[in-house]
Amino acid sequence: MQLTTKGRYAVTAILDLALHGGEGPVSLADISGRQDISLPYLEQLFGKLRRAGVVNSVRGPGGGYGLARDASAIFVAEIIGAVDESVDTTRCQGAGDCQGGETCLTHSFWEDLSEQILGFLQGVSLADLIARREVRRIAGEQDRKQHGKAPRIPLAMTGAGLDETRISAGAP
Amino acid sequence: MQLTTKGRYAVTAILDLALHGGEGPVSLADISGRQDISLPYLEQLFGKLRRAGVVNSVRGPGGGYGLARDASAIFVAEIIGAVDESVDTTRCQGAGDCQGGETCLTHSFWEDLSEQILGFLQGVSLADLIARREVRRIAGEQDRKQHGKAPRIPLAMTGAGLDETRISAGAP
DNA sequence: CAATAACCAAGTAAATCAGTCAAGTATCTG
DNA sequence: CAGATACTTGACTGATTTACTTGGTTATTG
User: pLDDT tens digit string along A81-120?
Assistant: First the structure.
């Protein structure tokens, strides 16, 4: 299982992009300033994200990045997959040779867990995240701090009743 | 998120204990031999597991470890919690000060993910794992390789219809 | 009392991560 | 077309963490 700040930063940055990309490209410098992520590190991450087809870039003055698709068609699992190796929790990366060529006792269990996590991440889109009240509140504060700019949230995306993404879990 | 070989080893070792603990204590040397985990490392892990109340120990010759409770009352989440710090996926360990004292844009999302994973792990008991056909097959092979011993599976625990632990995931 | 097995405390090599640096290339504005 | 802007690429590094070892102590059985 690889869920580190790399994946977290990527999701945060892309979400920032989704929030501010309403009109034209967003520069990494802007994202860096708002989200407190170092610029060169963002460059590294966005290189992978572009190659994975999550974002597209515009060069030259006034350039920057934009989402490659609608926010409702980009899922968190894609973003994490693009920058991290995987969300696999088995030791053998699913190969089944965990114990000297043999399958270890708990292999199938970790496979189930991985599937579980992946299923969750595949079910949450950027649009779902934007719809959260919490996200919009924080984004608004960040915009205010930055330049007094109004938050550029494409209101068409903020559906009602989606405030907290909740997916049914197993018996408690 | 801390899900490394430490947690995996702990679950595997405890499962081995559950499978072989039918009659009296099981020594770490036995588990080490069957599961290919270094003995001193097992000692480290079982120290934590004992302090967490998951297993109890008997010292001296013929001593070893046993489950502190019935296999149906010990859940994977406990085992991982005992050896790893947590299964939290937020950067700030849930404190909400991810971005220089402020809450970062994606904080609530990682909280949800953490809850999701924890819910899954809390819903799977050792008895559930023992009931898996896969686990019993592998355990049988391991026993045969070792000493030609018969697998000591407490048959009372192997309920039917539980072969694959499946917990309902969100919409795909 | 001797063998056994749990218990305990440091210490260490390797791997990984987060982040940096430097040099380069494409694109736009004036 | 010239300069500035901004993305692109790839190698590099310090710090942290992990997995595992060493060496010893304490309790219990026969």
Answer: 888 666 677 777 777 788 767 788 889 999 899 899 999 9
Angle of helix A5-20 relative to helix A28-35, nearest 10 degrees, comes to 110
C1'-nearest nucleotide to the CA of B63: C5
Q: Where are the alpha helices (DSSP H) in A21-125?
A: 28-35, 39-51, 76-83, 107-122
Predicted confidence at residue A88, as pLDDT, reads 74
Instruction: Please report the pLDDT score of residue A95 as a whole number.
Output: 76
Is the pTM higher than 0.85? The answer reads no
Q: What residues of A are in contact with residue B135 (Cβ under 8 Å)?
A: 105-106, 108-109
Look at residue B84 and tell me whether its pLDDT is greater than 90.
Answer: no
Rounded to 5 degrees, φ, ψ at B65 are -120, 155
Most distant pair of Cα atoms in chain A: their distance: 60
Helix (H) or strand (E) holding B40: helix B39-51
Task: Give the span between the Cα atoms of B25 and A165, in whole angstroms.
Answer: 46
Among all chains, which residue has been given the structure tokens 């995987």?
A86
A chain contacts of residue B134, beta-carbon cutoff 8 Å: 107-108
Closest CA to A1 of A80, A99, A74: A80
In this complex, which of B102, B117, B142 lies closest to A117 when CB atoms are compared?
A: B117
- Residues in contact with B157: Cβ distance below 8 Å, sequence separation at least 6, in sequence order: B71, B72, B127, B130, B131
Size of chain B in residues = 172
Protein-to-nucleotide distance from the CA of B30 to the C1' of C4, whole angstroms:
14
